[in-house]
From TrEMBL:
Residues 175-296 form the CusB-like barrel-sandwich hybrid domain. The keyword Phosphoprotein does not apply. This is Efflux RND transporter periplasmic adaptor subunit. Keywords: Transport. It holds the Pfam family Beta-barrel_RND_2. It comes from Bradyrhizobium xenonodulans.
């Protein structure tokens, strides 16, 4: 029994000792790791310290926030504080230092090591480093995280499409009216109503007019005379009198054939088209000038659209136009610009444009709403960049030129036409250069941060108070 107790005590003591041994080794290993990380971080000099919570607070030296958390050191190469830097320093020690630059990116250099008014050390620039001024530099990790994409500048045709609303109107040159030129009476009206499609020469009505009957009798008497001279002298004048009374040519030819003066004269349609207006009623009296029929040829119609004043410079006679009627989804009518009216509407700041459209099936009706898509494309290719690459402030347009190796150059450009997702570049870029098309606003923000830090440094207090002012700045 005593032997069993001794063995139990011995086992417990050995386990405690063994546990103490492993715990001591783990603590020592962790302590060694922390010391190694601290030593690696101590080999590098931070540019400044930032608030651990991401607030816009900085400090030139180590500091704690209101919650007791340590400010995070920020290094020149944008790497984590725990990353070893001895190998980089050993490699840089064999390179020649050209000068020292301002740690905040300000245009200030020094031939010897120095500190800025906030107590931050100037950063050495080695032989072989990119020393171009005005460039924005990003680490490969930041480029990958932000999704920066670039595209080569190339020549391509710019398709500029001008869209404008409008309505369908009749061609003024294809509308005819039938009106009496002398006092007349409507004896009979054909079975023709408003909206009826008629053919040229189709009978419309029969008219009795004393003036027409008198002129017809005189003409027939003249042409029935045996005297050749009287026919030449008087016959021509009598026939012209009938023409002046607007008697149809078909009715005059029938008189000459039958040598009979008709009591009523048949009036026929002067053209193919649709009856837009019928005012003739059997038995009615028609005074000179009264319109009895109005007929329009709708095989060709006009589309009158209102183009915005800003697009007027891209519009020209003869340009092709695709017209879409809201009544026919998916159907397109092809036409061309015939007239650009020489007047700007002072209220809407638009210009009226006339487009001629073929309408053989009479699908387009007067006053129908349409949408016109005017193609102002120029076949000649021009230097162009994607829409997304341009940073436009209204008064200034710029792009970020990708110089490679994480370097980006902000460059002001002059733009031309826009269309098809691209913008013409008239000055500022060369063929083959690469511009940033994605996440360019993040790079622009990086550049603006440097400008903001420059203004902050210019207004910084003396060096003795710089650290305190930096920590309290919001």
């Amino acid at each position: 029994m005593k032997t069993l107790r001794l063995l139990t005590i011995f086992a417990l003591g050995g386990g405690l000792a063994l546990g103490f041994y492993w715990s001591s080794n783990d603590a020592g290993w962790l302590a060694h790791a922390d010391i190694s990380a601290a030593a690696a971080a101590a080999d590098r000099t931070p540019l400044y310290y930032r608030d651990p919570g991401g607030a816009p607070l900085w400090s030139a030296g180590p500091k704690k926030d209101d919650r007791g958390r340590d400010y995070v050191p920020v290094y020149d190469d944008d790497r984590a504080a725990s990353e070893p830097a001895r190998s980089k320093q050993q490699a840089d020690s064999s390179r020649k230092i050209l000068y020292y630059r301002n740690p905040m990116g300000l245009p200030d250099t020094s031939p010897v090591p120095k500190k800025d008014p906030m107590g931050m050390s100037y950063v050495p620039v080695y032989d072989g480093d990119d020393i171009e001024d005005g460039l924005v530099k990003l680490s490969p990790g930041k480029i990958q995280r932000t999704g920066v994409r670039s595209e080569l500048v190339a020549r391509r045709p710019i398709r500029v499409s001008v869209k404008a609303p409008g309505t369908i109107q009749l061609d003024e040159r294809r509308v005819s009216v039938i009106a009496m030129r002398a006092e007349s009476f409507v004896q009979k009206v054909a079975d023709v109503t408003t909206g009826t499609r008629v053919k040229a020469g189709q009978p419309l009505m029969e008219i009795y007019s004393s003036a027409v009957a008198s002129a017809a009798a005189e003409y027939l008497a003249t042409i029935s005379s045996k005297s050749v001279g009287s026919v030449e002298i008087y016959g021509r004048g009598s026939r012209q009198r009938l023409i002046n009374l607007d008697v149809p040519e078909q009715a005059i030819a029938e008189m000459e054939k039958t040598h009979v003066a008709p009591v009523t004269v048949r009036w026929s349609a002067p053209r193919d088209g649709i009856v837009l207006e019928r005012n003739a009623i059997e038995g009615m009296r028609a005074n000179p000038g009264d319109v009895l029929f109005r007929i329009a040829d709708t095989s060709v119609v006009w589309a009158l659209v209102d183009v915005a004043e800003r697009d007027l410079g891209n519009i020209a006679v003869g340009q092709p136009v695709a017209v879409r009627a809201r009544s026919f989804a998916g159907k397109t009518f092809a036409g061309t610009i015939a007239v650009v009216y020489p007047q700007v509407n002072r209220d809407t700041r638009t210009v009226r444009v006339r487009i001629e459209l073929a309408n053989p099936d009479a699908a387009l009706l007067p006053d129908m709403y349409i949408d016109a898509d005017i193609d102002t494309a120029d076949a000649a290719p021009v230097l162009a960049v994607p829409d997304s690459s341009v940073l436009d402030t209204g008064s200034r347009q710029a792009v970020l030129v990708d110089k490679g190796d994480g370097r980006f150059e902000p460059r002001e450009i002059k733009l031309g036409r826009r269309g098809g997702g691209y913008i013409e570049v008239r000055d500022g870029l060369a063929d083959g250069e690469a511009v940033v098309t994605s996440a360019n606003f993040l790079i622009d923000a990086e550049s603006n941060l440097k400008a903001a830090l420059k203004g902050f440094a210019d207004a910084a207090p003396p060096a003795s108070d710089a650290g305190h002012a930096m920590g309290e700045h919001k």
